[in-house]
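Predict the assembly for these two chains.
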Amino acid sequence: MNATLRHAGWVLRGNPVTAIAATAMLVLVGLAVAAPWIVPYDPVVSDVSNALKPPSAAHWAGTDQLGRDILSRLLSAARLDLAIAFSAVGISFVAGAVIGALCGYAGGALDRWTGRLVDVLMAFPLFVLAMALVAALGNRVENIVIATAVINLPFYIRFARAEVSVRRNAGWVEAARAGGEGRFSIVLRFLIPNILPAMAVQISLNLGWAILNAAGLSFLGLGVQAPTPEWGIMVAEGARFIGTGQWWLVAFPGLALMLAVLCFNLLGDGLRDILDPRMRT
Amino acid sequence: MVVFTFILMRVLPGDPATFFASGPNAGQEEIEQLRKQLGLDRPIPVQLVRYLGDVVTGNLGRSMTTGQPVTTDLAQRLPASLELTFFALIIALSLALPLGIAAALRPNSIIDHGVRVLCTLGVCVPTFVSGLLLIYAFYYLLGLAPDPTGRLDVFSSPPPDVTGFLLIDFLLAGDFEGLRAAFAQLVLPAATMALFVLAPLARMTRASMLAALGSDFVRTARSIGMADRRVILVYGLRNALLPVLTIIGVVFSTMLGANVLVEKVFSWPGIGSYALDALLASDYAPVQGFVLLIAVIFVLVNLTIDILYSVVDPRMSAE
């Protein structure tokens, strides 16, 4: 553990971009958690006399068509967007790791059928699949989470399966089997912990993608509904005013989305360097 | 896959018969009649078998919102989407290949770092944001682009319908004024989509070019004094194209998904916006048809790429 930390410190020193990304992500999560207490204005209360004002000292990011403060809405939205991304990726990681590891360890019919199901899922463009899922399950936030989790699932299943089948006959698995551990116990207590570091990289890269997906769905009017502050909805509402030059309605939520995704992607690349030196680019 | 889309759409909540009955105070009788007409009174397996039969005979059902058969609607709108997607792919490739090659020729140079920064940022900006910002810059600020709605501005008349691809149709009709108008409408949405897929293409080109340029045959070609241009384009690029082709397949799939977003931003009358409208109106048949069509296109694209493999690398067809 100590050696890992030291290695992490060494990599971070040599790679300031990752350190910046990690700090930025911590700040982002901190802002999202603290949002209800630090927002300067109520994010859903409208003030029509102040509508469509450009950024100023009172409203740093301007106001939208109902006079709501965009900065306050951005901060509250961060909470929702991050929560959606984290829970979606969490679900698909847990489910994918367990299913994939069982398939990789057991093989046989289970493996074949899961493999076929994964192939069917991946035969669709994933964003289209997510759209159809949200429509099928109903237009609610939980269903955005589920849809995003489902379209991420194939990657985790494949990844866990490949990593586990490499280790299936390793000495320490053999030893656990000889020691009288059951199948599930071997998979859950020995194999999955062993593939966790490699999966962490996948998780970080996936979080960015999950945020883009959730925002895209809300932009289309699926999932999160107005007036709830959410980055995708804010862009969708601002879209009506872009042709008349009110750029701040779109630019700031867009910037927030971009920064969040950028943080997760850079962090993922950095994590790869720390956890898996073989895959260094 | 057909079965999967069918099941997906049948678990949709909301009864379409109630939705499309004449109004909120439609009688129970009318709803029942509509349901019978739509075949919704039968058990689900019976509906599935009927649907499979219909798909085989090319009947995808009727859209409740437009009142036309789904096949007709999709056929009308598909060229718009394909024109947009292909044009975007051409823009992306014509930028990504030179950028990737330039980066690979001088690793760790300013060009290389610039390309890397561009790629890292490119994947982070959602298409709907970059599209809107392009509209702001080129329509509002600079006034270079026309009103970003649809495939043609209101002053132009559409060309005689031959292929459905406006650019080709205008060209066939010899109407260069129309060609210019259609092109102006197409550039912004296509550029939006191209920006989004530029990153994976350029990154893959760079990586595989680096590998190809580091190989023995390139060193040999250089050592016998062959011109740089020939070494890079014939020996390097030809060998680097295979992984790039693979990634084009992946990129195409992402583009089909991103189509929905871009078509919505630019009010582009393609299959994506058609399916989205149907989806929001809980009109099953068009959505089913759309998902099916996308899957078919996806399979065709992968087939084409497999064939192209053997063109690019004759060793592949020997197996």
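Residues 176-213 of chain B form the longest helix (38 residues). Chain B is about 75% helix and 0% strand.
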